[in-house]
Amino acid sequence: MPKAKGRTVAESKTEMLEVVLPNDANSLGNILGGKVMHLIDIAGAIAAHRHSHSLVVTAAVDSLDFVHPIRVGEVILLRSQVTRAFHTSMEVEVRVYREDYITGDRRQTSSAFVTYVAIDSQGQPKPVPPLVPQTADERRRYREALRRRRRRLAEAAQMHRRYFEKQA
Fold first, then answer.
1. Does the pTM exceed 0.85?
2. In whole angstroms, what is the distance from residue 131 CA to residue 93 CA?
3. CATH code, domain with 162
4. Is residue 150 part of a domain?
5. What 3-state DSSP class applies to 132?
């Protein structure tokens, strides 16, 4: 099988906008955290689809902090891009912003790194093209993605060991 041609970070970049409506909010008038997580997953999956030209499933989400609230009537802006492709998985960074469309004030509210796995029509993992970082910032993020992946895999292995120790 010939080696897959690489794709650039720019080819995966995605931007989503939505107005926060009352049905998306809690009793304080702020967007629900679950709604933000849902939108992060969608924006990240679109970037992963663009990179892999494949169906994808969510495999992991790094920590997610909500730094600033997003109020009803404000715009939620999500920007995502693939930071690294491995054999069948991709790490995608998703940044979330709130924007007051009257004043133009924009502030980052959260970010997450989400791992997606490309799958074939039978639901089995399939190889993805390599990522070709082009700028110094993209190369830095590419290196950092490997460190995060190693940490995620180590934490997952530790969690599995604990689970099986309790079962014994």
1. yes
2. 14
3. 3.10.129.10
4. yes
5. strand
